[in-house]
Design goal:
The complex is a heterodimer of chains A (110) and B (117). With 110 residues, chain A is mainly β. Chain A has no helices and eleven strands. Chain A has strands spanning 5-7, 10-14, 19-24, 31-37, 44-49, 55-58, 61-65, 71-76, 85-92, 98-100, 104-109. In chain A, the strands form two sheets. In chain A, strands 2, 4, 5, 9, 10 and 11 form a six-stranded mixed sheet that branches. In chain A, strands 1-3-8-7-6 form a five-stranded antiparallel sheet, with no helix packed on it. Chain A is globular, with a radius of gyration of 13 Å. Chain A starts with a strand and ends with a strand. In chain A, 36% of the residues are buried. By secondary structure, chain B is mainly beta. Chain B has strands at residues 4-7, 10-13, 19-25, 32-38, 44-51, 57-58, 67-73, 76-81, 90-97, 106-108, 112-116. In chain B, the strands form two sheets. In chain B, strands 2, 4, 5, 6, 9, 10 and 11 form a seven-stranded mixed sheet that branches. Classes of the chains: A mainly beta (110), B mainly beta (117).
Chain lengths: 110, 117
């Protein structure tokens, strides 16, 4: 059982559609990060959320941290083929290392 | 921004041989580096935490005698897969933490793809 559960695991949508990816846990995190990874490359940090209820926006991406700091969501508006990739959430439990969720593989078709 | 490099980017080796992977922080000193393994279509799994000047801390289920970690300097950590077998084939990713910042100053390398024949 993973500490961080991501859903959905796979998502295939058409260009222009909206989508939301969820990251849930029963544990409280001091911070949570979202990464995007392309095949054959390392993860690239998109955002860090720290405060319960925090909302951060990065162009068409909106990130939210749950009030209790146990869950987070990533919403993409008007997805584009360039958004295709593996999206990973990662939480900081002990203040020193990251625990990764299982990942959501997104494919946006033109 | 800060950069972490890995070498080699890919390696193919015969079963039974040992392979060394290097992880370098290029413009900052990292007292802590992390090694992850990622199987196809899966997420990253932390293998071990590499601490400069001391022994690495291994996650449960990771054999420390098989995956040797050496963090000899503040900019270099190495992972040696000893007596590699086909089941060790994976994508190995390191990350380095800039001690000057918080957790979001952890930078990931580009990964090393290991294929054991």
């Amino acid at each position: 059982t993973q500490l961080l559960e991501q859903s959905p695991q796979f998502l295939s949508i058409q260009e222009g559609e909206n989508l939301t990816v969820y990251c849930n846990s029963s544990s409280v995190f001091s911070s949570l990060q979202w990464y995007r990874q392309e095949p054959g490359e390392g993860p690239v940090l998109l955002v860090t959320v720290v405060t319960g209820g925090e909302v951060k926006k990065l162009k068409r991406l909106t990130f939210q941290f749950g009030d209790a700091r146990k869950d987070s969501s990533l919403h993409i508006t008007a997805a584009q083929p360039g958004d295709t990739g593996l999206y990973l959430c990662a939480g900081d439990l002990a203040g020193n290392m990251l625990t990764f969720g299982g990942g959501t593989r997104l494919m946006v078709k033109p | 921004g800060a950069v972490v490099s890995q070498h080699p980017s890919w390696v193919i080796c015969k079963s039974g041989t040992s392979v060394k992977i290097e992880c370098r922080s290029l413009d900052f000193q990292a007292t802590t580096m992390f090694w992850y393994r990622q199987f196809p279509k899966q997420s990253l799994m932390l293998m071990a935490t590499s601490n400069e000047g001391s022994k690495a801390t291994y996650e449960q289920g990771v054999e420390k005698d098989k995956f040797l970690i050496n963090h000899a300097s503040l900019t270099l950590s190495t992972l040696t897969v000893t007596s590699a077998h086909p089941e060790d084939s994976s994508f190995y990713i390191c990350s380095a933490r800039d001690p000057a910042g918080g957790l979001d100053t952890q930078y990931f390398g580009p990964g090393t793809r290991l294929t054991v024949l």
